[in-house]
Amino acid sequence: MSTLEIKDLHVSVDTEEGAKEILRGVTLTINSGETHAIMGPNGSGKSTLAYSIAGHPKYTVTSGSVTLDGEDVLEMSVDERARAGLFLAMQYPVEVPGVTVSNFLRTAKTAVDGEAPKLRHWVKDVKDAMGNLRMDPAFAERNVNEGFSGGEKKRHEILQMELLKPKMAVLDETDSGLDVDALRVVSEGVNRVKEGTDVGVLLITHYTRILRYITPDHVHVFVDGRIAEQGGAELADRLEAEGYDRFLPAGAGA
Ligand code: ADP
Ligand code: MG
Ligand code: MG
């Protein structure tokens, strides 16, 4: 049983005009086996939370803490975070020239486990996971993120999650225009990992549609860098019906 604990987190981002405070006191605890959805209007700081947990250098934690089973995540290097069992989908968002998906996955698995996976099992695991995600085997020989469509990026992300078997996964949906088929495949992948392991999931999303496929145990509404409301899956239904208007200043629309 693992616990990711975020306590009174304040985060600033470096901008050309100087540091700007984005997260203004976020407190959240995720246990193994739980799925938490973070929802909120655009610009409310959802991705900033994900980047902060991932250790993105542009985001400065000015106070508060993030721990995994009591270990200080904010003190860890990006590699140490992965070895500790954190899966941060946005960790490698960029193209990796000359590195194939296949090599990338094996390197990542070796780094996380501290030893290279046994080749015969590994080849089968990759093949099975790709089959589950309905990915063309040729995909394994493409370079990471080079010319990937939104759907391919998401499948690649879930493929990593299936193979790396993290304790905690932070998935920023980035609302990247997945078509319904891709959305379903990705959601099924997350659900498969949830069924097969005791992973805790922090699912960040603007839209409620992915929550038709992945049922959250807890929903947190993010407004202006803070959690404004918390509830169960029914809160997502309410947001789908009503939008975020009641959380925004009168007249702001949305
Ligand atoms: P969300 O994911 O909820 O849409 P973000 O975390 O992306 O929100 O952004 C929150 C706020 O922080 C926005 O006002 C955004 O413009 C600002 N912000 C985020 N990242 C940066 C950055 N790298 N440089 C400047 N401003 C940023
Ligand atoms: Mg956004
Ligand atoms: Mg975002």
From TrEMBL:
Question: Does the record carry Cytoplasm as a key word?
Answer: no
- A Pfam family annotated for this chain is ABC_tran
- Gene3D superfamilies named among the record's database cross-references: P-loop containing nucleotide triphosphate hydrolases
Similarity comment text for this entry: Belongs to the ABC transporter superfamily. Ycf16 family.
NCBIfam families from the entry?
sufC
The alphabetical list of record keywords is: ATP-binding, Nucleotide-binding
What residue stretches are annotated with the ABC transporter domain? Answer: 4-249
Know the name of this protein? Fe-S cluster assembly ATPase SufC
Q: What Gene Ontology molecular function terms does this protein carry?
A: ATP binding; ATP hydrolysis activity
